Amino acid sequence: MGELMDLVLLHAFPLDARMWDVPGALTPNLRGHGEPDLDTLARQVLDQVGDEVVLGGCSMGGYVAMAVLRRAPERVKGLVLVDTKHTADAPEAVRNRLTMAERVEREGVGEWLADAMLPNLLSPNASPQAQALTRSMILEQRQEDVAWWQRAMAKRPDSADVLGKADIPALVIAGELDPIMPPEITEQLVDVLPRSTFVEMPGVAHLPPVEQPEQFRQELERWLTSAVR
């Protein structure tokens, strides 16, 4: 999309690059190894992309984007944050993540995980295609990645300081019906980022690019054309 730099989009938990239907974008699959830490994923991303990027992420992908910005701010020329937040997890959220990680390690990734996650990821109005894609992505993840991702997210820091220094154009997108990251939470990013645009997508939950890929592409292209190019 951008003429001079890569557009990089980072996937949500517990999904993979198939959640993005954005032609021309680089969409790495994030893989956990070693001690769980989002900085590990940030290094993976930086090794796979160009020297100047427009960097986007949904949910967990947004957390990784913030970790990239913390590590190499000079390489990020624009930021797209979708249904994510800058704050660290509260103690109860940390406990829930660690409990899920332990269950995944005991039982593997199965229908139980998809059944638990889908009501939080998609709205009741999501198309059968969106539901099938999301379920298949969940079921096809490696159990070691799912557990690692949860442990890494549980220990992530608050990123307000990093975002506050990011004097770059930023697009913040929120799904109107997101039950785990409602728009008023995502919109807090606007107060932290120096140069941001906020868009609330109606009728979708935690995964706007999956539920309404065409509308998501339109919002992204509109912003890229006006703010980045």
TrEMBL record:
Coiled coil segments of this chain: none
A single MF term (Gene Ontology): catalytic activity
Pfam families in the cross-refs: Abhydrolase_6
Superkingdom: Bacteria
Annotated ranges, domain AB hydrolase-1: 7-218
Protein name per its UniProtKB record: AB hydrolase-1 domain-containing protein
